[in-house]
Structure formats: C-alpha cells, structure tokens
Design brief:
The complex is a heterodimer of chains A (334) and B (252). With 334 residues, chain A is mainly α. Chain A has helices spanning 12-35, 50-89, 101-114, 119-141, 150-173, 176-187, 196-219, 223-228, 233-255, 261-273, 277-301, 310-328. Chain A is globular. The chains are: A mainly alpha (334), B alpha/beta (252).
C-alpha cells in the first residue's frame, strides 16, 4: 500500500499495475459468472452429449453473457457517474443519485409500468424521466456561478425529493397486481436487461471523461484556481454534470435503482490509487463493473434457483463496506 | 502590462471602488492596503478577470481581459486567492505541479522539467521537505506557502497574490518577501494584498490604498505610504519610526 516514490505520490508504474490488476480480476469475474449459475448445468456438460452441450452453450450465450455484459456496463456507468458527481459537488461522498436523475427515471418507469407498458417502453420512459430531471435541474440552477455550487446541490436534492414523493404516490395508488413489478424495478434487477444501450453510453461517457481528465484534475482543486490556470470552469462544470447525469440515466434505465456502487467504488479506489482522474476514471469503470458483476453472481446463486434483486444484494454488501471505509477515515475530514 | 480603466467595483449592493485608474508595469511591486471589507480581494479578483466590474475594464497588454484567450491569460496572469479548498486527498507536489497546466499540451503527463521547476519553487519557500505530504496535513501557514509556490510555478508575467503572508511566521514572511523581491527584480509584476504597510519594504515599488467608500490612492511607495495617508486609511493614528535607514509604520 505504501509504494511511494521520493515525492510521496504513488509512482505511475505502480498505479498502472494496479489498474491492470483490476482488469485481470474483472476477466476472472466474467469467467466465473459465465460458468456458474442456477441452471444445474456444469462445465462437465461440455464433455457430455451433443444435446447437453448445446443447452449449456445456449444458457451461456443467451442468458449469462448478456447479463454479465449488462452488469459490467451498468456498474461501470454508476461508478463513473459517482466519480464525476463527487468532482462536481467537491464532495468525496456524493452519490450518482443525489441530484435527482435517478428519481426522474423512477417516476418515468413507474408510470409506464402502471400503464401496462412492455419492457422496452418502460426503459424508454425511464430514460425520458431522467432526461426531464436533468433539464429541470439545469434550467433552475444553470446560472449558478457561485464557488460553492450550493444552488446546484439544493436544486438537485429538491428535485430528487419531489421525484421520491411522486414515486411513493404512484406506488400507493397502483393496483396490487402491478405493485410487485414496480417494487422490483425500484430494487434494481439485471434479469433480462439489455446491455447494448448501456455499453454505448459507457463508451461515450468514459471516452469523453478520459479525454477531459487532465482538465478535470484541475477542476477538482477549486473553481478559482482552475480559472486562474485557464480553464473554462462554468462550461466544464456543466459538461461534468451532463456526463454524470447521462451515465446515471443509462444505468438506471438498464437495471433500475442499484445503490452504493457509485458511492463506494470511487471512494475505495481513491484511497488505493489517488485522486488523479487519468487513472481513477478507468479504474472506476473497471471496479464498478467488477463489483456489480460479483453482486449479481451472488444474487443469482446464493438462494438458487430463487434470484434476488441485485440492488438489494449490492446494498447488503455495500453498506458494511462503506461504513468500514468511513471508520478508516474517521481521523480525517472527508 | 496590466491596467485598469475607470474601474468600478461592487460587492452586492455596496460600492467599493470607483473610477480606478491603474497601470502595472513589469518589474513593479504593488502593495494593496485597506481595512477589512474595503474591496482588496474583490479588486484582485477583478484584475484576474473573475469578478466583473460594474463599470470600466481591465486590460492585459492593452487587450480587454475577457477577450484574451484563456490559456494565454493563464501564462501571463497568476491569481492566488485567500481560500484554498481541499476536497480530495492531494500531495503538495501534485498541487504545485498544477501550475504547469497552461503549458502542457493536452493529455501530457508532467515532464521531468515540470517536476524540477516545482521542486525548485518549493525549496525557495522552505517547502522542499513537504513535497510528498498530503495538503490536508499541513498547517494554515504551510498551505499559504504551497499556494504561493503554485503561483510561482505558473511562471506568469504578473502575480496577483491575496494575503499570501497573513498566516506566515516571522522568518517565512521575510523569506517570502525576499522571493517576491527577486521576482520583481527579475522583471515580473507582483501585486500583493496585505494588512501590514511594512511589507512594502521587502519588495514594493508602488502602493494602492483602498478606502472602502470608492476612494483610492495609488502611486510610488514614497508618495503614498505616509503617516497621514495610513492614519486616514485605518481610521487610527499611525507613527513612523526611523531604523535601518528606512521608515517603519506602527500604530500610535
């Protein structure tokens, strides 16, 4: 943990090695999630009869692979969103859901479920809801040029609270027959999640965020300092907000509300790798994918054949880890 | 190099400064004095282009400041504020290296030359041993020196420094003044906000007094820094003591 060079920063090769280690762990987790499952078909089926082999391949290619890809993309999106949100709000403990993007998505999805829409329409409605909340927050706080950004935070939190109230209202008014589906959507679930749009969003957000990483590093040191160094701070801040909101919207639209990935992964990786976003952003994408993939593996195997909502598993695993991290940092203002 | 023309500043509803005419040339050291709330920091923010004046304009080499390309401005003008926020863990060296940002091409890791320059500036302010420390573990005065080292690493033609000496102990104040005097002698312009008129002795060629009600007085140190002017500025009588071939201002 203390491989530091003379200047106290983790040497670049050390950080790159740790990044590669994360990638390796991710590959192992993918392999595990493709081979372990609740179907009762083991790898031994590959030596078995033709029929058995085909059944296993079908399970792997049609069920496990898309689900693993969805978990990777959603986890990576949430961790990236968390990283960017923490940078934007200058608070290492901010969460991708704090500014109401996911609240908007929930309202959209619940409304669509209530109207009896199919999965595709529900996802579309969730995306529309998220987009609406992004536009509302931007319209209300877009001219907040204060150094504290209090207006952005308060506006986002208020929008989130409003969306929460609307969601509760929808749940309480919904007929019993629909309630189970709505609650499960809110809990977050990767079963049947399409990975394509999430992967596309991930490529876009990660690409742009990485490209901006050197400027974002400066932005994290304060608005006035960034201005003095020649950054277009207000434009850059709204790009960060846009990227974080887009990543959150894509994640929530794909898999519902999965908590804590966006909070814990960036925080833990920052302790391990430092704050340099040129390393931290790709690490967050890898780490977020890894953590959610493992949580999903647990969700679908722990009580097999019963499948648990991955959001609940993530919370069960995540909260203790988060509290432990907080204890570790108790000596420091964080 | 940096000039103000008919500059008027307001903070909220309060008028701080009106009709300021200022021309800061290379090799000049300016000391800005005034009571609390007289608009010193606001003026510095306006000279940096961050705070927008209600009237008048700031020019950099004759060009209106908002029209100067941001990167070019950052190479000519360094602005150190009073607050330094520290939201994320960061080492002293990382912070100081950020001063090289205006010179890096996009997505370039910091070069060996950047590191050498950063360590050199840290050493000038007695911070060489702290390069690897986390900023959060430093004292207030140490953090002020890190901020000043960052401004120096920016290698701008003009340094705007907001109370860089306020939390420094006696030795480090003298050391910092010595560094600023070297920068001024080397042809940089230094604009420094302070509460101590005696800081002028270290480096200043000019002084600017802000009376907080719109009035101001600017000129060479010898003309502006007098017991009458300082007494009027602080609403408290000031005496001058002669020692070491110069004047020291003390409250009467």
């Amino acid at each position: 943990m203390t491989a530091q060079n003379a200047t106290g920063n983790l040497a670049l090769p050390v950080r790159i090695r740790r990044l590669l280690l994360l990638g390796l762990l991710l590959l192992l987790a993918v392999a595990a999630s493709l081979t372990i499952g609740s179907s009762g078909l083991g790898l031994s089926a590959l030596q078995g009869a033709d029929e058995e082999r085909r059944a296993l391949l079908a399970v792997i290619v049609d069920l496990r692979l898309p689900r693993a890809l969805a978990a990777l993309a959603v986890g990576a999106l949430l961790a990236l969103a968390g990283c960017l949100q923490q940078l934007l709000l200058r608070n290492p403990l901010a969460d991708p859901y704090i500014l109401g993007t996911s609240g908007g998505a929930s309202v959209g999805a619940l409304l669509a479920l209530w109207l009896g829409a199919g999965a595709l329409l529900v996802n579309l409605a969730a995306g529309l809801g998220a987009l609406t909340s992004i536009v509302v927050v931007f319209a209300l706080a877009g001219r907040d040029h204060s150094t504290t950004q209090a207006r952005l935070l308060l506006t986002g939190v208020a929008v989130a609270a409003f969306c929460g109230a609307v969601s509760s209202l929808l749940l309480s008014l919904a007929p019993d027959g629909l309630l189970r589906g709505m609650v499960f959507w809110l809990l977050g679930d990767l079963a049947g999640a399409g990975w394509q749009s999430a992967a596309l969003a991930l490529a876009g957000v990660l690409g742009l965020a990485l490209w901006l990483a050197p400027a974002l590093n400066i932005l994290g040191m304060g608005l006035q300092h960034s201005y003095s160094l020649g950054l277009s701070v207000h434009t850059l801040r709204w790009i960060v907000y846009g990227l974080a909101a887009l990543a959150t919207a894509a994640a929530v639209t794909t898999a519902g509300m999965i908590g804590f990935v966006g909070l814990i992964v960036p925080h833990a990786l920052r302790l391990w790798l430092g704050q340099d976003l040129r390393v931290l952003l790709p690490a967050a994408a890898l780490g977020g994918g890894l953590v959610l993939l493992l949580a999903d593996l647990l969700a679908r195997t722990a009580l097999a054949p019963q499948q648990l909502p991955v959001g609940a598993v993530m919370g069960l695993m995540g909260v203790p880890v988060f509290l432990w991290l907080l204890q570790q940092r108790a000596g420091r203002a964080c | 190099m940096l000039s103000a023309h008919g500059l008027a500043l307001q903070q909220g509803e309060r008028g701080l400064l009106a009709g300021l005419e200022l021309a800061i040339a290379p090799g000049e050291g300016w000391l800005i004095l005034g009571e609390n709330g007289s608009g010193k920091s606001t003026l510095l923010a306006a000279l940096a282009g961050w705070h927008l004046p209600v009237a008048g304009e700031v020019r950099l080499d004759g060009v209106r400041l908002p029209a100067v390309p941001r990167r070019q401005r950052a190479r000519q003008l360094a602005w150190q504020t009073q607050q330094d926020e520290q939201a994320f863990p960061q080492s002293v060296l990382e912070r100081v290296l950020s001063g090289r940002y205006p010179y890096r091409t996009h997505w370039q890791w910091e070069s060996a030359a950047d590191h050498a320059l950063a360590l050199q500036q840290l050493a000038r302010l007695d911070l060489a041993g702290l390069a690897g420390r986390d900023l959060a573990t430093l004292s207030g005065g140490e953090r002020r020196r890190v901020a000043m080292a960052t401004a120096l690493v920016q290698q701008a033609d003009c340094l705007l420094l907001d109370e860089p000496l306020s939390q420094l102990d006696l030795r480090h104040q003298q050391q910092a003044l010595q560094v600023l005097a070297e920068e001024v002698a080397g042809g940089r312009a230094v604009v420094l906000v302070s509460h101590d008129p005696n800081h002028a002795r270290g480096f200043a060629t000019h002084a600017l007094l802000l009376f907080g009600d719109g009035r101001w007085l600017a000129g060479p140190v010898a003309d502006v820094l007098s017991t009458e002017n300082l007494g009027a500025l602080y609403h408290h009588p000031v005496r001058a003591l002669q020692a070491d071939g110069g004047r020291w201002f003390v409250p009467a």
